[in-house]
Amino acid sequence: MTAVHALIHLHDFDDGSADFKLIGVFTSPDRAEQARAACAQLPGFRDFPDGFLVVLLQVDGARADRGSLPEDLYLLFRTLEDPVRGEEVVVLGAYLSEEEGNEGASAYREGPPEAGLEVSPVTLDERTWCDGFFTYFSDESDESVESVEQ
Fold first, then answer.
1. Separation CA 118–CA 123 (nearest Å)
2. Chain-wide mean pLDDT for the chain?
């Protein structure tokens, strides 16, 4: 099977919550590293340089077995609202088509009923998150924080 490299940034907050950003999905470790280096210079990312993570994903599908990938892939995500950590996002797989992603999702329907499954398109070797971010407190009396694109 052919593999791709998902570049993710996890930003942990002092209150125990976390924020997940998919930077992009890349065809090689070098391209993922180039994207990481570019993002590391942006506001927010430069303050949390240890938050970058590259996840190796095997691409499901017949063409992937022959090493041929289309320009667009479909990622399957699971999102779970945790009362302490906030929204937790996990990338479950990469697929050649939305239909294959939805079929793949059926294997995860046995998970927690509150978990949301989503199949989203991504373009290979393009950054999906191109700006920096900043963190602000939504209410000074409230310890909740948000990370927003800048």
1. 16
2. 82
